[in-house]
# Entry
Amino acid sequence: MPADPLLLKAGIWLGIASGVLLVLMLLGFALRWGIRFRLVGVTSFTVLLSLSCLAFAVSYAPRTVVEGSVSVPVVFDNGGDLVIAAAPANLAPAAYQPTVEQVALNLRGSGRHGDNGLVHVRLRRVEPQGDGIDRPVILAQADRSLRDGSVTVLP
# Structure
């Protein structure tokens, strides 16, 4: 798992600040300072920020970029076995397969269920047929395995 270096460094510095605030808080209680209860709040909030930064830094996963692909929005996701992304009108045919592969690779698998452990990812465009009638056209399709994360682009 890659760690985000900026968040990791911020988490470490916030952890150091939490330790300093903890010492000040204990000193405040020992000397009966008037701000001792405020120090409890500031210390606990700083500890929370530190742990949050460290947790997010460790769990961060950058998006995968496939050469020749275009970033497209996901317009339908049933949370299970079907994801549909919308292709722009000017998308070149050479970019269909890399784009659907990129969408499939960037799916997060936790909580999904699918037929035989597969999630079907489709790239589609809505084309006008005339008289206000539009028809969706599937440009490319890929299947992502929930078991091993592999992607198979279908012709």
